[in-house]
Each structure stands twice: as C-alpha cells, then as structure tokens.
Design goal:
The strands form three sheets. An eight-stranded parallel barrel has the order 1-2-3-4-5-7-10-11, surrounded by four helices. The radius of gyration is 21 Å and the shape is globular. It has 15 helices and 13 strands. It has one domain: TIM Barrel. A hairpin with a 4-residue loop joins strand 12 and strand 13 (421-424). The chain is an alpha/beta fold. Bound molecules: beta-D-fucopyranose (FCB). Residues 12, 15, 160-161, 164, 216, 285, 347, 394, 401-402, 410 line the site of beta-D-fucopyranose.
C-alpha cells in the first residue's frame, strides 16, 4: 500500500531537549559555543530549552491533538555516543525508544534526523568535520540508532542542512563550532559531511531502511540583469543548492571554479561511489529565496547578498515569498529529471512576535497566512508534476533558535520559557483543520 502524504511538524534535539548533562549525555559543539560570550543573543542559555527531555509525553499529546501523521525530530549524537565514537550510551537510546513507542502508539510516523548540528565535542577536539574520521564515526552511530529503532522507524534523515552547518558553523563562524576557515578547508567540511551521509546511508539501507538527506534550498536571483550579477547568482546557486545535492543525485560535484576550487582535496577514490545514489528521498527545507549581486573587487567570495524588497518579512527579517517554494520544487524536478527522488518539504515556517492575550490565547494570523500560502504553493508544484510526499511545519513549540536564543518564535505552540507552559496558538487549530481536511480524518474537537 502506498504510504499516505505525510503531514507533520519538525523539531531538533538541541533546540528543545535541555537536560544537557543528564543520563550520560556529553557536551556537543553547541554546548561549548553557547558558553562563549557574545555568541548567542542576550546570552540566552540552551540548558533547559523546552525541557522536552522531561516533558516529551506532554509534547506527544500535543502532536496527537494536532492530528499530524508524522513527526520529524532529531537524535542527539552526544546522548547516544557521548564520546562521538566507541561506547553507546544505553540511557540515551532509551529516551528515543520511549518517544518512538509513544508516537507509533498514536499512529504518528517517527522520522528521525541523525545529525542536526550537535556534534559531540570530543569529535570536534579530534578535528570535527575537517577530519575524515568523523564520517566513519557518524556511520557507526547511525548503525547503533538503527539497530535500536529500525524495527519501528522506516524513513531516516541522515543530516540536516549540511550547507548551513558548513557555512554558518565553519565559514562565517556565527554557529557552532564557530570557525572561519578558508574556502578549501570549508569544502573539506562539505565533503566529510557528504561522506558521513553516504556511509550512514549504507548502514541504514543494509537494514532495509529508507534514507533521506535534508538540505536548505533557496531559489537564487541576480540583483540586476548584468552578466556579473548572473555569474554571482550561478556561484551562489552552486554552493547553496547544488553542492550537497549533485553528488548525491548525479555522482559529481558541481562546478566550483568561481570559488577558486578546481576540485576538493579531501575527495578520495571511491568516495563519490559511496555518496552517489544514496537517497530514497530528498528533504527540502524552504524559508525564502536569495538575491545576490557581484561582490566588490578583491572580495573573498564570488557573491554578495542583496536585499529582497517589496515583500513582507518575518520577525527574523526573512522575506516572505511563497511562490519561491513552488518555483524551487519545480526547479529541482527540472534540474535533476529522472535522477530526482521523491521530495519532502521537511521544514517550512516563520518566526513572529507572538504574545499571549488576556484570555490566554495567541493570535498569529501572519503565521497562518504564511503557512496557508506555502501549502498552496506546494500544491501547485505537485499539480505541475513535482513528486512531493510530505510537508513538515517548523516547528511544534517555540524553541532555542541557535544564535538568536529564544528571540525567534517559530512554534505552533507558544512556550513561556520561564514556566514551560505550552499554549497552542491559533495556527495550531488552523493546521489541525487543514490536516483533517486533507486526510479526511474527522476534525475532532480537540480540547484546548
Ligand atoms: C533551519 C534549521 C532549524 C531552524 C530553522 C528556523 O535552518 O534547520 O533548526 O533553526 O532554520
């Protein structure tokens, strides 16, 4: 029986769990990064986040009330293999085992992501993603999680947004591990992430499981009609959209000559064979398109960002362009043709300045409009032939938004970070009825 379209929400371990020192979890690069003064806005601490590690049952109840048939969460590598390699921490796996059981009992498909940026600090100290050993360690960790959960979990996401982890974490230095490497070394980080994905995919597939790779994608437009801006747009597109996708779907790296790179030194014979054809589904995270211009003379990178004007923006300042999602899904289809695999929108959502009103409700009409418009854009792409099999809202509960701390609220559920009280926003009810409509499930009057 073909599986039904997945309607879900997505979260990640470090952003919701808290309990950073419990049950044998060791620090990740994010624990260490957040300790450094000036890295997180207003010095917000990730120590508690949404306290999901203790309140997971309440959060599963929320998922149940929402009516989703899938839940994308991430497994914390430093909880499961605290030193990155070697001993597996049973208590860490127990947590995800309980979560998976609770989801399955409610008819919600668990869709775990194995790496959502929280590299064990021990591995960082051994070279992190600059070291090939990290790729091997990831495959072993993936195998350990699959051995424990693979009897109940069918679809697995290896990495979340390797392009963002590469660029923000290893080039711009604004995310953990806070490095500012040169282009060749940044490309090494890219290759080792892809190799990690490919090796882990082998482990998962040898157990009969399906493999997805999730990236951030963004349609790219040149700021003007000039040839220089067009070249900048091509360079940015190669980096953002192709670098982590071409090798997986077509077996070759894109042209990176605009970055002064003829190739990637870290690539060894046989690596591309491991990476090529290693996915059964492509996870597409979409937030906004990107506009780029030619850089000034002598700049380190072959592009510059240009502002997108004339459209609404989110609290984060991100431009709201729903048609971008339709365009993106069709672009991927056109670009990869028969090499493309089914797509899943694994993240889409927006941050807004949500406030609790006197009656305890949270009106978030901008989020409802954002989500409704993006779902329609996805529908149009599907009508025009894009094979999309799922849609996940980012995110369930307002959470720790990386370097922004608790400032950006992306949740369908408001969280008072002082008390951990959860309050479904209006968008929660909106999404519940959308799912009920689309799945034909009776829209039970779920109690608030
Ligand atoms: C994505 C990340 C996710 C969240 C959203 C807002 O880039 O994958 O963790 O931070 O952005």
């Amino acid at each position: 029986m073909p599986s039904p379209f997945l309607w879900g929400v997505a979260t990640s371990a470090f952003q919701v769990e808290g309990a950073l020192t419990e049950d044998g979890r060791a620090p990740s690069v994010w624990d260490v990064f957040c300790e450094r003064p000036g890295t997180v806005r207003d010095g917000h601490s990730p120590a508690t986040a949404c306290d999901h590690y203790h309140r997971w049952a309440e959060d599963v109840d929320l998922l149940d009330r929402l009516g989703v048939n899938a839940y994308r969460f991430s497994v914390s590598w430093p909880r499961v293999v605290p030193e990155g390699g070697g001993t597996v921490n049973k208590a860490g796996l127990d947590f995800y085992d309980r979560l998976v059981d609770a989801l399955v009992a409610r008819g919600i498909e668990p869709v775990p992501t194995l790496f959502h940026w929280d590299l064990p600090q021990a591995l960082e100290e051994a070279g992190g993603w600059s070291s090939r050993g990290t790729a091997q360690a990831f495959a072993e960790y993936a195998a350990a999680v699959a051995d424990r959960l693979g009897d109940r979990v069918r679809r697995w996401i290896t990495l979340n947004e390797p392009v963002v982890h590469m660029a923000y974490g290893h080039a711009f230095g604004v995310h953990a591990p806070g490095k500012a490497l040169d282009v060749p070394d940044v490309l090494t980080v890219a290759h080792h992430q892809l190799l990690a994905h490919g090796l882990a995919a082998g482990e998962l597939r040898s157990r009969g499981l399906e493999v997805l790779l999730t990236n951030n994608y963004s349609p790219v437009d040149p700021a003007t009609g000039s040839e220089a801006d067009a070249a900048a747009a091509r360079a940015y597109d190669a980096l953002h959209n192709r670098l982590f996708t071409d090798p997986v779907l077509t077996g070759a790296y894109p042209d990176l000559s605009a970055f002064g790179a003829e190739g990637i030194d870290a690539v060894r014979e046989g690596d591309l064979a491991v990476i090529a054809g290693s996915v059964d589904g492509l996870g597409v995270n979409y937030y906004n398109p990107t506009r780029v211009a030619a850089p000034p003379q002598g700049a380190a990178l072959p592009f510059d960002f240009a502002e997108i004007t004339g459209v609404p923006t989110t609290a984060f300042g991100w431009p709201v362009v729903p048609e971008g999602l339709e365009r993106l899904l069709l672009l991927l289809r056109e670009r990869y043709g028969d090499d493309l695999v089914p797509m899943y929108v694994t993240e889409n959502g927006c941050s807004q300045e949500d406030e609790v009103d006197a009656g305890g409700g949270v009106a978030d009409p901008e989020r409802i409009a954002y989500l409704a418009q993006h779902v329609r854009a996805m529908d149009r792409a599907r009508e025009r032939g894009a094979d999309v099999r799922g849609y996940f809202v980012w995110t369930l509960t307002d959470n720790f938004e990386w370097a922004e701390g608790y400032h950006q609220r992306f949740g369908l559920v408001h969280v008072d970070h002082a008390t951990q009280r959860r309050r479904p926003k209006d968008s929660f009810a909106w999404y519940r009825s959308l799912i009920a409509d689309r799945t034909g499930r009776a829209a039970e009057a779920a109690p608030e």
